[in-house]
Amino acid sequence: MTSRILAHIQKELLLLLRDRGGLALLYLMPVCLVSIMAVVQDAPFKDFSDKQVLVLYRDLDGGVVGKQLLEGLNDAGPFMVTDITGDAGTTDAIFQERVRTGEFQVGITVPSGVSEVLVKSSDAVVKGLFGQIAGDSITAAEPDSAFVEVLIDPVVKKAFRELMNAQVNRVLAGLSADRMLQDMTTQMENLTGNDLEPLRIQEPFIRVKQRMAGIELSGTHVAADSTQHNVPAWTIFAMFFSVVLMAGNMVKERDSGIMARMLTMPGGAAERIAGRVMAFLLVCVSQATLIFAIGVFLLPILGLPALDLQAINWLMLLLVTLAVGAAATSYGVLVGAFSTTQQQSAVFGSTSVVILSALGGIWVPLYIMPKAMRTVGELTPLNWSMEAYNAVLLRDGNMAELWPYLMPLLIFTAICTAVAIFAERITSRK
Q: What is the rounded CA–CA span in Å between residue 388 and residue 314?
């Protein structure tokens, strides 16, 4: 049996080597796509268009700062806030983990004591102002400062992180100003009418300290940019687009009479399908190797960031590539088993892959899509593939975090392969 499978693998590779058009489709197309799309999407990755994002929120202070900040975020369109204030079971580590793994794009913590800092800071400013009125030469104490901590999923783009900072700072600045005006109102009851020097507040009393919810690798945090998104995205697309060539070859074998001759040889449909899947799985691995090399060496020449592969787990990267390749090739044999003409296999194969790519986060990240599209996209094999690569390349994930994406890919592979074998057996009897 093994020898027959190896013979089928050899046959598929020889057919592929003789097909120059097929080789160009498998290798030149993805190289061009990743180079062009990385350049085209560089600006959008820098200029994030605000969409609805998931925010995990907790208030450890219990004062006015936490309440007002929560109201400000809820009033802002882009954010869907989940308030877990009072949940004693959520430790700092659990809170960070829920953001790092992508369950939430943002995590905001209002630490204890910030409301007290707000009161003291406002009091210091107001005393300085009214000290001028009274002719007091004593300088009021410098206002204290405090931080609201904002955790960001490493997959989220830089421009979004800046948007998040701006939104939180806007709310905090308004809160600081409101508190100061409140204190001034109380003091102005004794106002004498003297001209006062205008009071200018350069920045809010409470500022944002943002950091990545992930492990720092080689002195830096790896985050999503045009390269980090497009290289794995178009690697996945290239693997799945091999369905066009695989399905076309299967139809060609039936139309040319090759299948009839193969049926006279020992072995069955399972061995033929296994040979095709394994042959193109080798192709998928070589595609991934080529495109990742493009990300490391070519894209920096085009003025883009280099693909950051520092300190990644290479074994996990290989496992993800094999799982994605297996899902792609099994889908290819499934389409080929049910296609009756080469035109049919090409049109359906290419169209289905393009649609699945759009839904699965290949073209744009899934988290900026509308909720309905996001729900559908989460059920596609290309999204599982993208999230698996993100877990390895951006989130420094472990096997436990990879398994929720690898398991659906393996199930998808098994189902597609089993159905393809069944369909091939039915076809061979006709």
A: 13
